[in-house]
Structures are given as C-alpha cells and as structure tokens.
Amino acid sequence: MPIDAAGALGAAPRVREIAWDHKDVQLYHLGIGAGRPATDPRELRYTLESRLHVLPSFATVAGGGAPGVIATLSAPGVDVDLAHVLHAGQRLLLHRPVPVRGRATATARVVAAYDKGTAAVLVLRTEVGDADGPLWTDEAEVFVRGEGGWGGERGPSGRPAPPPAEPPDHVVERAVREDQALLYRLSGDWNPLHADPEFAARAGFDRPVLHGLCTYGATLKTVVDTLLDGDVTRVRAYRTRFAGVVFPGETLRVRMWRPAGAERYGTESGGAESGGAGEVRVTVSAVERDDAAVLADTVVRYG
Fold it and tell me: Is the overall model pTM greater than 0.85, yes or no?
C-alpha cells in the first residue's frame, strides 16, 4: 500500500536549517502580484529593500526547498504519484513578525493521516524557530486521490462552510498575470503542474494552474492592504481551504466580512483600521468562471 499511515505518523521529525534575505522576500512578493503600480508607495513596501516589510505568508517559502505539500510526499511511509495530489488546505500561526533576513531551524513531521475511503488526507506540521525562540508554525493539508481504504480515522469533514449570508464589507478584484505561476515557482515550488501543459493534462487540467499558495499569499496581501493599512505585523494567524483552481490570466474576486457586531471593530472603537484586534472571514472566486470558488473557510486573525 503506497501510504503506510503508521509509518508516516511514527517517523522521526525531519529537521533542516533555513535562511533567507531581502532578495527572497522581494521575489516572493513579486510572485504573488506585488509591485503594481510599480511606483505606488503602498507597493514599494513589498518591493524596495530600503522599505521592505515581510508579508507573513512568505513563511510558506522561507528558506527555499520543497513546499509543505511536496515535502509531505517524501515523508516515510508515503509513496504516491504527484499527479494524484492536491493541496487541500493551509494554516499559519505567527509567533513573531517574520524578519527581512534570518536563519532558523525548521522541524517537520506528519501529524495526521485520514482515511477518506477513496482518498487519503495527510497533514504536515512545520515548526520554525531561531535563536530568539519560535517564529511560526504552519500546516499543509494534502489530499491524495485513490490512496484511502486502510480503515483509518476519517478525520474532519472536508466540505467548505457556506460564506456569510450578509453582503461582504469589502470586495476587491485582483488580476493574475499570465506568467504569474512561472514567476511564483522561482520561490521553490517546482511542481510541473504549474508550468508544463502535458503534466497538467495528466492531472486532469486543460492547462497549467496557479499555485494554491500563490493565491493564498495574494489574498492575504489584499486583506492586509484593505483592512490593516498595509501593516503586516498585525497578522496573527491565517487559514484557508483550497476549494478550486485559478488559471493564470484570470481575476480573483476577494470578499471580506468583519465579525458580527462590526461596530465593535470600527474606527471609533479600536477596529482593524485603528489598531484593534479581531478576525476577517474571506472567500475568493474566479471572476471569469462565474465566480467559481477558489478559497473557502478562510480566516485572517489580526492584533
């Protein structure tokens, strides 16, 4: 059996040293669509080294190497075809703001293996810390078609929750460049699904698709720029479920809801715009495909 759940869960953590600097941060920001317009001061904080701030989702690529969804496939007890793999979800918890440059230790292990019958879901948790203590924790949820059936725990439901019934507080549209996937993959995700038409066809797509983590980063940037005045240090946690794909060249529609009782989060009472704490619910869809769902169950917590 390609997935040995007991072997994956019982394996020793994999530890590696990672390092990054301003060039890695700038490349990542460009890869998720920052820098348009190029001279906009709000964009220069993502692209100009003298003003650089680090969007927390950079944590998913910091240090290079395979992203969590790919690293999971090299875990002990896991031997599956990459074409059968989908990135199901991503969670990120920030312990401190991500520095512009740093050296850290990343410790990763499979913490869950769920048997969905006709598929398997694996969860890879990575803890990252430096000499000053923990920096971030991220979890990649990986869906593998055709690899269930060993009689294991089914785990939580994978059905996305419906969006809030009320109209969103903010709606922002973001165009995705035709070459966005080619640029984003330079940050370390070399999965051919995002560049090779033949591989994409084998995976069931008529053309290469955008990295889910590229959409993940672009969405967080939209929330930070819209509701947190570009202050990346206020993000505390960020999670999403990947509900569908994005094709390069499409337009993302990002809908944002503040919590019920929004008056507690307004500018007069210490909300997102004035330094308060709370969370934002988000959905993302593809405009050109009749608002096809892209990200669901998406929440940004801020302080």
Answer: yes
